[in-house]
Amino acid sequence: MARGSVLVIAPHPDDETFGCGGTIATLAASGMDVYVELVVQHGINTGGPATAQVAANRGMEFALACGKLGVSDFHVMIEEGDHRDTLHTQAARMVESIEYGSPLSIDRVRPQLVLLPARGAFHQDHQVVHQAAFAACRHRGAGHHTPAVILGYQCPEDSWSSQIEQATATLDVTEHYGQKQAAVACYQHQTKPDPHLRSRTAIERADAVQGAAIGVPYAESFVTYRTDLRFIAEAAEARELVCENT
Ligand SMILES: [Zn+2]
Q1: Is the dihedral of CA 153, 135, 31, 168 positive or negative?
Q2: What is this structure's pTM?
Q3: Could you read off the pLDDT of 190-225 as tens digits, one per residue?
Q4: Span from the CA of 229 to the centroid of ligand 1 (angstroms)
């Protein structure tokens, strides 16, 4: 039986991996069900020329990466679209999908933890997704699920943001870092040569810096938006049950 669930909101294919792939792999390996809601699978090719094949490639890369990370299930909210218009004109629909409309909505998955793009993101479409997901995580009253912990992940380009936020929560992802590296390698169309921020080595260096802050090889850090401490009590209870059963 799964020990709770996690919902990751990714604006585009690759954000879940570049932003928090090590955390996804670590939590999935711990026995939690990790679900990824991909907002738009657009046809923009960051690493080369746009072609009709790009959207399909990005979808395939996303599915492969989720497999490497141990994701339980994923869902694409908007299959096709130009993200430069789509996300800004569909914010209300996005909120409803994350709340209850998607097969992986908050009400269906009932996650203890939601990982969303941090508010101070560089990309405007990440900012829009942050606002929608943050709104969907509010307490909506009886009959609706309220996630106990809300954390914002930061993507490579966020280091060039005029409103970058201080990361306040950290997870050692060293044990499962190989899975993140394998997932990053799935995104051939989205990575660039070193020393670009989206290069494999730049991503590893950034995770190594986060790791050094807590004395481990690799870590990922997050901005905290909600930490309901009953989450810790529930985890302790779950551990007690496991101990009693063994
Ligand atoms: Zn993105």
Answers
A1: positive
A2: 0.91
A3: 888 998 898 999 999 999 999 999 999 999 999 999
A4: 30
Asked if residue 83 lies in contact with residue 127, where contact means CB atoms within 8 angstroms, the answer is: no
Homologous superfamily, domain 5-245: LmbE-like (3.40.50.10320)
For residue range 9-47, list pLDDT tens digits in order: 999 999 999 999 999 999 999 999 999 999 988 656 555
Distance from Cα 53 to the centre of ligand 1, integer Å: 19
42 C-alpha to center of ligand 1: Å?
A: 10
Q: How far is the CA of 142 from the centre of ligand 1 (A)?
A: 33
> Where does residue 166 fall: left (phi above 0), alpha (psi -120 to 50 degrees), or beta otherwise?
beta
Strand partners, 73: 35
What is the whole-number distance in angstroms between the Cα of residue 233 and the centre of ligand 1? 34
Taking the centre of ligand 1 as the mean of its atom positions, its distance from the CA of residue 122, in whole angstroms, is: 10
| Centroid of ligand 1 to alpha carbon of 143 (angstroms) | 32
Domain parsing of the chain, residue ranges:
5-245
Residue 245 confidence class, pLDDT cut points 50, 70, 90: low
Distance 237 CA to ligand 1 centre (A): 37
Q: Is the pLDDT of residue 49 over 60?
A: no
Contact by Cβ (8 Å): 189, 45? yes
